[in-house]
């Protein structure tokens, strides 16, 4: 009996001290999800660019300007003599309305006060306001990645919706340093 107990203890001691072995993955991901996502985004971007190009071509009387940031705009009312444009921290008061590129109104004219680059505002409109002077009116066409992108605004604007925004910059109150 003693021998059996001794053999059992020795065998437990020898086999229980074995170091753990790393588990091998069951399947290897090839990055196909990222490739598919990039391709889907390329197709979406091309579709939106074509839609925007069609809008621009159907309005030859408008002088559309392509911004460096990836959106298009034209002046409804351009102010030539004023040079004041919003800077970081300036308070701007503006009116705007938002519609789809098919022309369906999403948000009717709203008034908004915004502290430049210190509050939440979608990328395209934030960049567009920086191009404007007081009393100017500009119509912007934003592809979805410059508007609300994948998430939308969680209210009326859905996923990947390009937008047209008509904006009038009422006033700029410069920050006091």
Automatic annotation (TrEMBL):
The keyword Isomerase applies. It catalyses: [protein]-peptidylproline (omega=180) = [protein]-peptidylproline (omega=0). Pfam families: FKBP_C. Keywords: Isomerase, Rotamase. It is an enzyme of class 5 (isomerase). Residues 89-173 form the PPIase FKBP-type domain. Belongs to the FKBP-type PPIase family. This is Peptidyl-prolyl cis-trans isomerase. It comes from Winogradskyella echinorum. The gene is gldI.
């Amino acid at each position: 009996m003693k021998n059996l107990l001794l053999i059992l203890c020795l065998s437990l001691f020898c086999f229980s001290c074995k170091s753990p072995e790393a588990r091998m993955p069951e399947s290897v991901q090839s990055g196909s999800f990222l490739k598919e996502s990039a391709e889907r985004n390329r197709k979406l971007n091309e579709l939106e660019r074509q839609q925007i190009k069609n809008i621009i071509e159907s309005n030859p009387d408008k002088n559309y300007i392509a911004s460096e940031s990836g959106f298009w705009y034209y002046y409804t009312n351009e102010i030539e003599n004023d040079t004041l444009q919003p800077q970081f921290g300036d308070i701007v008061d503006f009116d705007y309305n938002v519609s789809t590129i098919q022309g369906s109104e999403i948000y009717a004219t709203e008034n908004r006060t915004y502290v430049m680059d210190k509050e939440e505002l979608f990328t395209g409109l934030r960049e567009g306001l920086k191009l404007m002077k007081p009393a100017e009116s500009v119509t912007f066409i934003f592809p979805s990645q410059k508007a609300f992108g994948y998430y939308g605004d969680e209210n009326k604007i859905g996923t990947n919706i390009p937008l047209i925004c008509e904006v009038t910059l009422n006033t700029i109150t410069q920050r006091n340093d």
